[in-house]
Amino acid sequence: MEYMLIVRFGYIYVSDYYNHRVLKLLPNSNSSTSATTVAGTGSVDYVLNQLYLPSGIHDLTGSNGTDSPSNRLYIPLEMFVLTRFVQFMSAILQITELCSVSGTNGTKPWLLNNLYEICSDTNGNVYFAKQSDYRVHRCTIDNSNDWIINNHNGSYNIRGEVPGTIHTILFAANQISEPYRGYNDVNLRYLVYDLWTFRKNFSLTNDILSLTKFTIHFDQIDTIANITLNQCFLGQTNNMFVGYSFDITRNCLKSTNELRLDFESPVIYALDQSQSYNDSVPPFCPPDIQHGECHVQFIRKEPCSFSW
To answer: Keywords of this protein's UniProt record, alphabetized (predicted)?
Structure first.
């Protein structure tokens, strides 16, 4: 299996299986691309020639578009009948917008990745490979980060951006005062008992809708949420420390779509879980001086959310 990786600053890393190397591609506006070999020398040692993604590879944190020491890609190197991992880095020297189409129309897919697998970048673009033209295509779905957010009784109905929390979103919308000022951790406590819904509308092109496999991925959801796409229930999340991926059937997708996340109160969820367990599990509650909430041990959520 071969993999394609879209990185933040406008480069695509691909495995070039036929030439036993890994390429860094910088697409440009005329639908062609320049390629730089960043691993492999054409040797048969690199016959496996895949990209492996260690923890943190998706975030480039260096300044001015350069790699940080933790940003490394991995490929397997076959030698002496054993497989070991070779680690390499490639400096990213400029920030460049990706073009609409990259790749060469030829008899073999030299831009290797899982055909019809969709990747994305942080600018709201998605990328997929088509076997018919051996190219990687870009579709800009929505460059905005605009979500419709409301609580259970509709007293709050605003637009906001993610990532964020209810407190940061409401504060940015001038709906509440500074959450960390004075005793606002207590005064705004009612927010954590409420139910919240996040909705995102987006459109899909015919190129995307013609594909055969669809997956939606969330890097982090905090914490208990039911996820629905166009009335199709995708699944529930209950752990903020892991990512979630859900397969989407074709009949759930339309040209215009609505993604909906319905969040339960983490405090009430933890209380319900403690009562269902029917046994005492310390710690029971934080000290009174912390003005916190109980039963943090019954939910996979950062403990500081319940008190500090």
So the answer is: Glycoprotein, Glycosidase, Hydrolase, Lysosome, Signal
Beta strands in the chain (DSSP E): 4-6, 12-16, 21-27, 33-39, 73-79, 82-88, 101-102, 118-120, 125-130, 135-140, 147-151, 157-160, 196-203, 214-218, 225-229, 232-237, 244-248, 256-263
Contacts (Cβ under 8 Å, ≥6 apart) of 164: 172
- H or E element in which residue 190 lies: helix 190-193
Residues 6+ apart with CB under 8 A from 156: 149, 150, 170, 175
Measured CA to CA, the distance from residue 62 to residue 48 in angstroms comes to 30
Count the neighbouring beta carbons within 10 Å of the beta carbon of residue 78: 15
Per-residue pLDDT tens listing for the chain (308 residues): 333 444 434 555 555 545 555 566 665 444 445 566 655 554 444 333 334 333 222 233 333 333 333 333 333 333 322 222 233 322 222 222 222 233 444 333 333 334 334 555 555 555 555 555 545 556 655 555 689 999 999 999 999 988 889 999 999 999 999 998 999 999 999 999 999 999 998 888 787 788 777 888 888 899 999 999 999 999 999 999 998 989 999 999 999 999 999 999 999 999 999 999 988 888 889 999 899 999 999 999 999 899 87
The strand pairing partners of 261, in sequence order, are 198, 227
Q: Which phi and psi angles does 31 have, rounded to 5°?
A: 70, 15
CA pair distance 220, 107, nearest whole angstrom: 40
> In whole angstroms, what is the distance from residue 24 CA to residue 222 CA?
34
The whole-model pTM stands at 0.61
Whether the Cβ atoms of residue 224 and residue 174 lie closer than 8 Å to each other: no
